[in-house]
Amino acid sequence: MKITRIDTFLVNVGRRNWPFVKVHTDEDGLYGVGEAYSCGPDRATVEVIRDFESWLVGHDPCDVGRLWHLMYAGSRFPPGVVVSAAISGIEQALWDIAGKAAGLPVHRLLGGKYRDRIRVYCHVRGDTPQQVAEHARQRVQNEGFSALKMSPLRPGSEQMPWSDTASHAAERLAAVRRAVGDDVDIGLDPHATIFEPAQAHELCRVLEPYRPFFVEEPLRPEHYAAMARLSHKVEVPIATGEMLYNKYQFRDLLALQAVDIVQPDICITGVGELLKIAALAESHYVTVAPHNPCGPVANAVNAQVAATFHNFLILEYLPDNDEARRSLVDHAVPLVDGYLELSERPGWGIDLNEEILSKYPYRPWRRPHLTRPDGAQAFQ
Fold it and tell me: What CATH code is assigned to 3-104?
């Protein structure tokens, strides 16, 4: 069996684009699908995939690790996020082919499952404490989630005095805790907007009484030692990892005992690299809560892989419940009482509805540019 070509589909059904990948083989009807991460310059990711096509045509798609290393090492310099995302989308499609060729779901090829279903959390939002609390209540009561994630920072906080921002963060979390009770886990994500360690420490301290599940990137993630110092001072679990994308970065983070939870994104790291990161984390008594603000293919991929390693904690999840998103694939992963159900269909258990994809073309996307009162660019 040989790879014959690679197709890409850049699809937008909302705020951001999803780069889907389809790897074809010379066996009739046998192909695989994957999803690369939406890095922002999404057309750049597509062009990298197109370039890799010329590297991979003629190779056996079931040599997944070998082809991953060909792309990774053959790129000469350690890949950045765009190249890593391109490699991941292709690698996912290769695993899909391998599963279909064997007649098995991918989790069986990866050693089988530790768990039968995958716990997920969803996002809640609101400008005021009352609004975010009501959204949280609806998520729990109407949709069955037992875990949520929210920003503790209100919109426009980059324009506010820090003392006001910190006190308002406590009010937001307190309102949500009152609305959902003690049985619901609440993760917090300041979105890596805080540069000053002292401010990150104060934020964690004022949030501590409301027992957050974790505080994700309370500090910019580039300086691992600063994150470690913060983690050793506070009494809340610290999480990070969406901006890291290989085992070497996570190795250095874990060696400093800087976090309690790591959050690699499989649409950047790829399948094999995420499993290596999970193994490194397990050796440090650290759990894994994969980052996943992505599309319906990513949900299927994450569910299969999360079943296969012991120190999985929880998965970030965007529901496949709106008509446009659900229409992109033939079988969205079922969600039951806050858990994703594992598929036993071969490969990832899903396929792209190609006739639908063209209805949702690429649109330019980037995070909004935020500024501080003096006009300086804020982190975002």
Answer: 3.30.390.10
